[in-house]
């Protein structure tokens, strides 16, 4: 084309796990495999921040020379990280300051909004935090972040040793410590709700723009045999070390057999396991250069038996006139205990250590509460309501390496003006017919009177199959029905389907 530019432009796809390639400096370092790093800077951490943003990390970049291009890239990287790994500042907020205008040590604390007063970035007078929240409600950029802390009783704030406010994360920095092209020493602070994310973001910031500082590199050892087998190549130990070095993982053969020592820089937060190192070796070798080979074993894919049984049952239960429901695997402690007339201490429930809402405190140990809540949300629908669900529950199990196991359950409920126990009993008979289990003691199935606080006295039975208790059915106790805000009788069936495989 006449008059066209002769400048070559490259389009580079950056994987989601490579935060170190989000700016020009990162791409250049990736090509040069020259990764400068920086030491962290200590911040005194107040316990008051636990209620809002409990974590803070910091670092210092010394003797930096900013040009307009570098400065713009520095600011742009912050914004990209804020929108990416920082999840729009909800997980991590980055603050950058001119270190020569402030003095350490620094204090990270939290105070009521009326007690925080400072001159925010690019403003001409001081405002309290309460006034700032009103001021920025009309700001096209900052208004999107106000919801993160505006309902909190205290707001996070960072002071220097003289009481100067550096920032009120995650909203705005102070004007006193703003950086400019003349800034030589940059203080970077990251406040967060997730400490791992905070460290990753801090490492990205300092490694992209530091030239004279050091951070600790991590070292891992693995064998060239492992890489050769996993990738499907046959290269020498020295050649594999060269491939990894090309991927910014400085590597060398240790001389002990085929062992390779790999130095992992802080920019490579995606390298967690030996498999991640193997992946980089494959990338450096070139996927198109790997010789295609015929698999040594031939297998035919097949549906997981438990899932196949589940799918077969779903179709026939729907054909029996029941509607399938799908509920959350997490629920409140009240749902699986108090509302069912039981004690939470007696349940083999897996508890969430830091639940974000009262609705998701434990993993469900029974499917029944979910179906009852579904009925409560559909009370205006015509009666009868006939629902079923086939899903997993989670139970504590000390014999498992993770301390818990999944158990596939089938649960059905019948909600009408009359209890309809005969409907649920009929569904049990139909289910057993489908599973080819005959109604008989011994090798078949039968029901036996049981006592359960969830069910009405004398209207509850255990289900036995080949002598083993696999479930329970009955008419729900009126108190249970009331606790789920229901007004009519309800009968239910719940059983384990794994014994039928």
UniProtKB/TrEMBL annotation:
EC number per UniProt: 6.1.1.20
NCBIfam families according to UniProt: pheT_arch
The protein, known as: Phenylalanine--tRNA ligase beta subunit
Pfam family, one: tRNA_synthFbeta
Keyword NAD included in the entry's annotation: no
SUPFAM superfamilies in UniProt: Class II aaRS and biotin synthetases, PheT/TilS domain, Putative DNA-binding domain
Species in which this protein is naturally found: Oreochromis niloticus
GO molecular function: ATP binding; magnesium ion binding; phenylalanine-tRNA ligase activity; RNA binding
């Amino acid at each position: 084309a006449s008059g066209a530019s002769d400048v070559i432009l490259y389009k580079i796809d950056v994987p989601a796990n490579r935060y170190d390639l989000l700016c020009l400096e990162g791409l250049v370092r990736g090509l040069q495999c020259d990764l400068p790093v920086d030491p962290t800077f200590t911040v005194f951490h107040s316990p008051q921040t636990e209620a809002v943003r409990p974590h803070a990390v910091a670092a210092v970049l010394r003797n930096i020379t900013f040009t307009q291009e570098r400065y713009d890239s520095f600011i742009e990287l912050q914004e990209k990280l804020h929108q990416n790994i920082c999840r729009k500042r909800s997980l991590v907020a980055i603050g950058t300051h001119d270190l020569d205008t402030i003095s350490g040590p620094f204090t990270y604390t939290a105070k009521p909004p009326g007690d925080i007063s400072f001159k925010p970035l690019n403003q001409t007078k001081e405002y309290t935090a309460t006034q700032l929240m009103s001021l920025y409600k009309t700001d096209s950029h900052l208004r999107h972040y106000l919801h993160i802390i505006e309902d909190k009783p205290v707001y996070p704030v960072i002071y220097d040793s003289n009481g100067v406010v550096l920032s009120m994360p995650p909203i705005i920095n102070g004007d006193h410590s703003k950086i400019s092209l003349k800034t030589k020493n940059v203080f970077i602070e990251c406040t967060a709700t997730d400490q791992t994310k905070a460290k990753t973001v801090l490492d990205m910031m300092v490694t992209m723009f530091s030239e004279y500082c050091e951070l600790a590199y991590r070292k891992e050892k693995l064998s060239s045999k492992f890489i050769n087998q996993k990738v499907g190549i046959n290269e020498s130990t020295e050649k594999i070390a060269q491939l990894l070095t090309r991927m910014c993982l400085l590597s060398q053969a240790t001389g002990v057999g085929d062992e390779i020592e790999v130095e992992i820089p802080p920019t490579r937060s995606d390298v967690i396991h030996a498999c991640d190192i193997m992946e980089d070796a494959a990338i450096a070798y070139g996927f198109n250069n790997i010789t295609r080979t015929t698999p040594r074993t031939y297998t035919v894919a097949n549906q997981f038996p438990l899932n196949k049984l589940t799918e077969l049952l779903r179709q026939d239960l729907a054909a029996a006139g029941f509607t399938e429901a799908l509920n959350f695997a997490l629920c409140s402690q009240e749902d699986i205990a108090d509302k069912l007339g039981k004690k939470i201490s007696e349940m083999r429930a897996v508890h969430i250590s830091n639940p974000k809402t009262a609705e998701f405190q434990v993993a469900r140990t029974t499917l029944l509460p979910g179906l009852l809540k579904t009925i409560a949300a559909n009370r205006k629908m015509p009666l009868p309501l006939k629902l079923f669900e086939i899903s997993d529950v989670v139970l504590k199990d000390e014999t498992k390496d993770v301390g818990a196991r999944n158990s596939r359950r089938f649960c059905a409920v019948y909600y009408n003006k009359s209890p309809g126990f005969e409907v649920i009993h009929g569904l049990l008979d139909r289910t057993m017919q489908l599973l080819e289990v005959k109604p008989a003691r011994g090798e078949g199935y039968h029901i036996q009177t049981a006592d359960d606080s969830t069910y009405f006295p004398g209207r509850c039975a255990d289900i036995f199959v080949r002598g083993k208790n696999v479930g329970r059915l009955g008419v729900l106790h009126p108190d249970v029905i009331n606790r789920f805000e229901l007004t009519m009788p309800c009968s239910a069936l719940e059983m384990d389907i794994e014994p039928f495989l």
